[in-house]
Amino acid sequence: MTRALSGRQITLRHGDYSASIASIGASLRALQYAGRDLVVPFDADDVRPAYRGATLVPWPNRVVDGRYAWRGAEHQLALTEPARGHALHGLGAWLDYGIVEQTDDAVTLGAAIPAQDGYPFALDVAVAFRLDADGLHTAVTATNRGDQAAPFGTGPHPYLVAGEGRVDDWAATIPAENVLTVTEDRLIPTGLEPVEGTRFDFRFAHAIGDTFIDHAYTQLARDAEGIAAVQLRSPSGTGVEMTWDDACPWVQVHTADRDDAPEISRIGLAVEPMTCPPDAFNSGTDLITLDPDASATASWSIRAL
Question: Is it the case that residue 28 has pLDDT exceeding 90?
């Protein structure tokens, strides 16, 4: 008996919205509004490409060289980004999550991250997806089941689609004052800089054009409820918006350039709200400390414009 390579398939529907969730990595495989893609999809029988839609736990982005120190102990993670020599996007992206609860428009998936070499901490992770008239809402909750405090971070990895065309054709709004600069070759963080006067300044909507971005933004403008938002619009006026709560003070944005595969280069804009920046296991910046039996939750939403 065979099964889809991306795991069990869950379809959610509410009004004009539909979402396809794959159990491997608690991944958002597809999201549509009135038949229009809001994220770059992948087929159920594909090995999920480029972390599309994956839930990133217990860290988003990179741990440089896969090494970090925690509470006086040195740890070495497996290098899952071999070309750059880093540990990338956590440990949960290839776990097969189980279905905890399901209705027509909502599902909660659960998985355990076992204590292991490089991350000797035991976590339970629940990922709740819910569709309503305002789009898809996702909440990730991690609970420490071990007897020692654990470092933790999370974020999603969707590639947003505004409409026809590619990233170059779309106008973006990224309401952030600062950007984290990185080295060109290995994307190692080097420091914060104001976006003003740089190619990273999208505080006011304008076309992305041929701008290359693979950087984390912070100091985000938020509404009265603490919600930050990135918007994309196509020349025809269709668009997509991603919002998130104040549990995520960072957002990674990537124009998804692929010189080795021009047919899929810049077909979606990766927008990844994060609870902490790249290499937070070493810098400690906004890193969550999960005490035994403690939980942390972060949430985000995607809707059509």
Answer: yes
Write the DSSP assignment of 221-268 as a string of letters: ---TTS-EEEEEE-TTS-EEEEEE-TT--EEEEE----TT-TTTTTSS
pLDDT in tens, 35-59: 999 999 999 999 999 999 999 999 9
Tokens of 276: 């902490």
Judged by phi (left if over 0) then psi (alpha if -120 to 50, else beta), residue 52 lies in beta
Those residues with Cβ within 8 angstroms of residue 102's Cβ, 6 or more apart along the chain or in another chain: 10, 108
Q: What own/partner pairs with CB < 8 Å and gap ≥ 24 does 119-126 have?
A: 119/58, 119/75, 119/77, 119/91, 119/150, 120/75, 121/58, 121/146, 121/148, 121/150, 121/151, 121/290, 122/146, 123/57, 123/58, 123/150, 123/152, 123/290, 125/26, 125/55, 125/57, 125/92, 125/97, 126/100
pLDDT in tens, 61-74: 999 999 999 999 99
> Are 29 and 42 in contact, with CB atoms under 8 Å apart?
yes
d(CA 141, CA 290): 11
Tokens of 18: 């539909």
Which amino acid makes up residue 89?
H
Give the list of residues 6+ apart from residue 8 with CB closer than 8 angstroms, or none: 22, 23, 96, 99
Secondary element (H or E) of residue 207: strand 206-207
Tokens 């000797």, residue? 120
Give tens-digit pLDDT for 224-233. Answer: 999 999 999 9
Work out the average pLDDT over 195-207. Answer: 97
pLDDT in the model for residue 1? 66
Q: Cα–Cα distance between 56 and 92 in angstroms, integer?
A: 6
Element (H, E) at 182: strand 176-182
- Torsion angle defined by CA atoms of residues 117, 122, 124 and 125, in that order, rounded to the nearest 10 degrees: -40
Angle at 173 between CA 172 and CA 176, to 5 degrees: 130
